[in-house]
Write a structure and sequence with these properties.
This protein has 158 residues and is mainly α. 82% of the residues lie in helices and 0% in strands. It is elongated and about 90 Å long.
């Protein structure tokens, strides 16, 4: 009932604004009046959809849910997003795109494919395996670049 009351208050104040605009501005032409009227109608429709249609639609979803509305909608981060953010911060964009992000992209592809097939245990295994491979790739890259740096220093000094 509170949402309907809010909607009615909104419509009332919008209509009052239109009336005040039309009364105080004698130069308001036909097209400007039509434009203001159209804006108010679209705003009223938007609020009707937001406060009337969405609750009704959610109620229908609640009734059609086989669990009786018990389940919650949860939003998860994409697989490997934290690792990807970290390596984008630590390494150059070229290195990330050409070397380090490839295992994460493969993991995401396999993970989403397993989720679409409904294989939750396989998806969890793919996450664990993909994280290990991504971390191992980062470690291998750091070790090889460190080795290359040592080799350059050795050649310069020797």
């Amino acid at each position: 009932m509170g949402k309907l009351k809010t909607l009615l208050h909104f419509l009332y104040w919008e209509l009052m604004w239109i009336l005040e605009k039309m009364v105080n501005s004698p130069r308001l032409g036909r097209w400007e009046g039509l434009l203001v009227y159209t804006a108010v109608v679209f705003a009223a429709l938007g609020y009707c959809i937001r406060f009337v249609w969405f609750p009704v639609f959610q109620g229908l979803q609640f009734l059609s849910n086989p669990l009786g509305g018990i389940s919650k909608i949860r939003v998860y981060r994409p697989a490997g997003s934290i690792i990807l953010k970290t390596i984008r911060f630590l390494f150059s964009e070229k290195v990330v795109d050409n070397v380090l992000a490839l295992p994460i992209y493969d993991m995401r592809h396999e993970y989403n494919k397993a989720l679409l097939q409904g294989e939750i245990k396989k998806a969890n295994w793919i996450l664990m395996k993909g994280r290990f491979i991504a971390i191992f790739t980062i470690f291998a890259y750091v070790v090889t670049t460190f080795g290359k740096s040592i080799e350059k220093i050795w050649k310069i000094g020797g």
